[in-house]
Amino acid sequence: MSDPKSGRNGELFLSARGLCREFGFGDRKTLAVNNVDFEFHRGEIISIVGESGSGKTTLAKMVLGLLKPTGGEIFFEGKPRDISTHRKRKLYWQNIQAIFQDPFSTYNIFNKVDLVLLDCIRLQGQGNLSKTEKFEKMKDACRFVNLKFEELSNKYPFELSGGQMQRLMIARIFMLRPKLLIADEPTSMIDACSRATILDMLLKLRDETTMTIVFITHDIGLAYYISDMVYIMEHGNIVEQGTADEAILHPKSDYTKRLLGDVPKIYDPWDFTSAAG
Length: 277
Ligand SMILES: Nc1ncnc2c1ncn2[C@@H]1O[C@H](COP(=O)(O)OP(=O)(O)O)[C@@H](O)[C@H]1O
Ligand SMILES: [Mg+2]
Prior knowledge:
CATH topology of the largest domain: Rossmann fold
Mean pLDDT: 88
Oligomer: single chain
Order of helices and strands: EEEHEEHEHHHHHEHEHEEHH
Largest sheet: 6 strands, mixed
CATH class of the largest domain: Alpha Beta
Number of helices: 11
Bound molecules: adenosine-5'-diphosphate, magnesium ion
Low-confidence stretches: 1-7
Strand order of the largest sheet: 6-7-8-3-9-10
Number of strands: 10
């Protein structure tokens, strides 16, 4: 399958067969994720689109290894994923980073921004670089997200705007270079202008690092803008999948058509100022 946007030729990176997750018992049982298959390739941006409660975050948590599937299997780099011990989980997590909806929940509010970035250097095993080298790395990461290190340094997370916080998150990702980034509604709490900037930075991140990015959103317009591949979820099921053009410009399922009905301007160049939510 060829993809008009990325030329999709990366090797298979992460996949799942028959992935399920139930919550509760008996009458109160919820099938949050129901028999889901996916294939994520290296360097691809994949969007998972669905309304609130469709199972997106549950799926993301299973991929992250934070929640156990109740059925099915995940394959990592071609082999069944094994995160059965603490050591194996730690190794798996070296490959993965996540950005969540609420940037403020991610940081320790008592740590200054400098420490957030210094921590990335330490996590990469470069804690013994000289002070100047560390500053250069931190400045470089800030430059990548168009922030001035001098403006951030010595500040606490709550002194930054939501948009600045999410950009700082991306600076972290730039430094850590995970193989997989899961961004769960990263733009839903920030203004439209910052949203466009964040999306463009995710694209730049993918282009400069060949990272695989899973972008989770309820906004099919944002998904079209950013993704190579799209999966549409309804009540725990994948009801549509394909390249962004296949799934969004030529949808087969009624559900996708209904979601598109909410975005009348999908065929026009995307207008971020009108993107609500
Ligand atoms: N820890 C949990 N316990 C019970 N039910 C849950 C839990 N987490 C999610 N669910 C249920 O699973 C379904 C999917 O939720 P979620 O994955 O958060 O959806 P989304 O991220 O698409 O909004 C919802 O019906 C939600 O109430
Ligand atoms: Mg969610």
